[in-house]
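User: For a benchmark we're assembling, each entry needs the component sequences followed by a predicted structure for the full assembly. Here are entry 17's components. Please fill in the structure.
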Amino acid sequence: MRPGWERGGSVSGRAGMGAGRGRPESGGYRAVTTAMGRKRSPRADVSGHPVRYGTARYGTARIMRPDDANIAGNVHGGTVLKMIEEAGAIISTRHCNSGQGEPCVAALARVERTDFLSPMCIGEVANVSAEITYTSKHSVEVQVNVMSENILTGAKKVTNKATLWYVPLSLKNVNKVVEVPPIQYMHKEQEDEGRKRYEEQKLDRLETKQRNGDVILPVINPDRQMKEPHTVGYSQSSLIHLVGPSDCTLLGFVHGGVTMKLMDEVAGIVAARHCKTNIVTASVDAINFHEKIKKGSVITISGRMTFTSNKSMEIEVFVDADPFVDEPQERYRAVSAFFTYVSLSKEGKPLPVPQLLTESEEEKRRFEEGKGRYLQTKAKRQAQMMQQAQMMQQAAQH
Amino acid sequence: MRPGWERGGSVSGRAGMGAGRGRPESGGYRAVTTAMGRKRSPRADVSGHPVRYGTARYGTARIMRPDDANIAGNVHGGTVLKMIEEAGAIISTRHCNSGQGEPCVAALARVERTDFLSPMCIGEVANVSAEITYTSKHSVEVQVNVMSENILTGAKKVTNKATLWYVPLSLKNVNKVVEVPPIQYMHKEQEDEGRKRYEEQKLDRLETKQRNGDVILPVINPDRQMKEPHTVGYSQSSLIHLVGPSDCTLLGFVHGGVTMKLMDEVAGIVAARHCKTNIVTASVDAINFHEKIKKGSVITISGRMTFTSNKSMEIEVFVDADPFVDEPQERYRAVSAFFTYVSLSKEGKPLPVPQLLTESEEEKRRFEEGKGRYLQTKAKRQAQMMQQAQMMQQAAQH
Amino acid sequence: MRPGWERGGSVSGRAGMGAGRGRPESGGYRAVTTAMGRKRSPRADVSGHPVRYGTARYGTARIMRPDDANIAGNVHGGTVLKMIEEAGAIISTRHCNSGQGEPCVAALARVERTDFLSPMCIGEVANVSAEITYTSKHSVEVQVNVMSENILTGAKKVTNKATLWYVPLSLKNVNKVVEVPPIQYMHKEQEDEGRKRYEEQKLDRLETKQRNGDVILPVINPDRQMKEPHTVGYSQSSLIHLVGPSDCTLLGFVHGGVTMKLMDEVAGIVAARHCKTNIVTASVDAINFHEKIKKGSVITISGRMTFTSNKSMEIEVFVDADPFVDEPQERYRAVSAFFTYVSLSKEGKPLPVPQLLTESEEEKRRFEEGKGRYLQTKAKRQAQMMQQAQMMQQAAQH
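Assistant: Structure for entry 17:
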């Protein structure tokens, strides 16, 4: 182990909230940034090692307030996503400015699939820790862990683990992507695994881009009173929001976290309309941010239910932006994603969900696609559990 | 003049921001509350006079932030309306609890027509002062003045004068209207004029209630790109908002000011879409709040242009509430109002406005009705100016 | 008494919320600003007296919302500090621009030690009144009183009295300190006492500057789960915030009040983690703002417990700013302060606090220093009570 790393780790490592320290899934990553030849600022280690202190890890905490939660007191998944994204934006902007390149702001490009492992409540403290785990020439991978803490009982639970990808945009020219200073890995495998993740997400981003290009008619808020309960039309919903200064980064574009919070809000309304009970976010599929949204735009966030299993609902959410004061530009699809919700009893146990009634051919097709995603996820999870069980068995045999 | 009043005035009078003290437009009202036989709290004047200190006036002030303004830096009319309503809610709740009745919260029932006399900018201080000017058995009239102050140059301008009507609802039973403790007037004429205003607004509230009862189809966000510029359909817009805890009063219903802020936001989007320039709120017609909106509801705020003069636009705004978790209740019309906007050049001068292109019979009818309101307002304003000129002439002759 | 002043007073006096009117501690100060030879704006009294209307006093009020409070419904000390600072910033900016100097914005330099005399609750109205009580060549002393008002019962309580020092910075050149127009005192003693306070705070500011300059290692947030409860490491916490437009003044620097609100938030998390009960801010030691924080910076606010008495906890809070997009500047310590918290039972009575377990030599040293501050404050308070008792005795004898 290199002494340079050791020192870097011993300071920057403790900057986090501690959530995830030593846990296997955060790997032995502990990324360290190199700043070789850096001239802009003498922040390198005094001993000359190419180490930048305090960059690699980041932690924050905030008490959950009434506005962060639904009527039942459960914190919105969107609140958590917004905190995750802010942590990611800070750590990656900081990292991208640690080299000798031009000043830049990291913009969210993608969030990998996230599971909400346990609900959080008003009054609990959300502890968010972030660390950079991979860098390509033009993008940064950040892993974020969220832990809920009941500060009255001391009880702690892992709430979320998320992986985000950021791209640094020049502060002077928002259309220019700046180069990312490389981080230094402890093992060759870390770099290799990171590159594999990088290639996979790149492929997936391309695919959604094509899917998003399809002409999907905006979900229009219907005369709900004429619809049958449990049909797609009955629960589909929209929110429309005027983008204000506080929604935006230094570059004047909407924070990815603000968009995700609104998306979760719509998905929650759809789910509540469908099953009329207390509902919470269970997971969010990978979200790709292809198009930036400018300050002053009007954004329409629409959600429609696509699939129900016995105890879960899948909701597809679209974000369309209308930069209405900029004459030439037309309304465009900025983001889309699938949210999975579950319905909870007063004791916090999952309740059965009324089956979605599909009417049109389109709805039936989307239901089948949703079923495919559901089964795929289920299979993946089972495989992971099998693997873990095997590992535990092996460990026990030694 | 009763000594009891004088003492009340000398204390309560200082509760205001001083803006308007002794100025003719705040009248010599200086209302005084009676608290005869009050048992809940021994707040009567020690000398036994039925006077409640500090009730009649109220003042507040706040620096305008980027989030309060549009891109050009002009503070939204809705921000001002929200501040006005908060001041009115505080002073009338305070007054309605000064008698011996049960604890209650004052709910906004109506705002009279308001003119925005001069624009406010980011960094300026908005000074708001409120005073109670009339009470009926079940309602309170509050007059609110807003003054903008540039704290760098010291320049002050009257921005708004508004008249609001509140109704006290029991804290224990939200459907019960509580009795209002009467205020004491300095002159008989004050009471008579107040009663006249009270009767007039009562009549007007009845009329809008009937109009609101009409089945008006929700304004559906169209495929704008297929519409001709300057048609009604081209600029019509909606916002959809999920009501959170911070939007609500102690009784769990949306603050009238929150609703008005969203209404102004939609009207501003419609106006900006129509004329693609910097636009500001010029006035708001009387708004009646017939129906409360409950926490957790989804509200749709829709706006459509109804009329254009050479230099102004009239936009009709509807608020529909959907208390979707409460099974039996259906979506209902909560409020509607007309907003007038003007377009400003970079120097702050009014610009010509493109004429509204009406297509359907309905649109033509609404245009004519808007023209009627426009001409009526114009005539009223001219009559007022004539009257003022006469008064000044008379004063000069003495 | 000069008639010019009298008129000034009769207007500006009404600008306050009435809180403090006639109370001895607001003195007969009623400072009056001079505007001799002012040319920038014709704001002098028509009669030619050097009086500036509406400068000397300022009042504001706001209803406390769910987001302003903790789960138990007690308003955060930080919310109150933020309101106090906004009032101070407005009144001192107004005053500093009343002379003939160049346009400027008052920046918070220091807040004297503040006690939270009684808790405030959601739904209550916070009434804030501010007045200028001393001016040196380059600084302004503002005294602010906060009174909580239950508008349902009419009950009022003094919540806070705070003294703030502001320094006017030129609008054109943020590094230039502008001269402050002198205020006019009613008695010679007022000026003398003010000068004494000025000299004292100047000395104290110098001292903290040196202490802040010390190399203080960042508060390291360890793996809490491995720490013993009631140790320093167990409760220490951090919060990270990206500075947005609404956090900043016209000059683009963070409002002192925004910083203090975040500091109180972290201190509250530390206190709650330590004693696992409902906790409230009891007092804040003097805070010196040595370094400005620029828009777009990332600020890290860290807190660690330093001392516990039987019924109180002292928490040290640091604010470090990282202006990461700005080329040359490195992360720096912007502010630090001590917050004292108490733990309350459901009936609002102070509860015993678990003793802080100190481990390292550093922690033991800080504990002893905290004990010193605690005993000093206690002695001061007893002396004040003795003095008051004597004064009451003397008054009774006459």
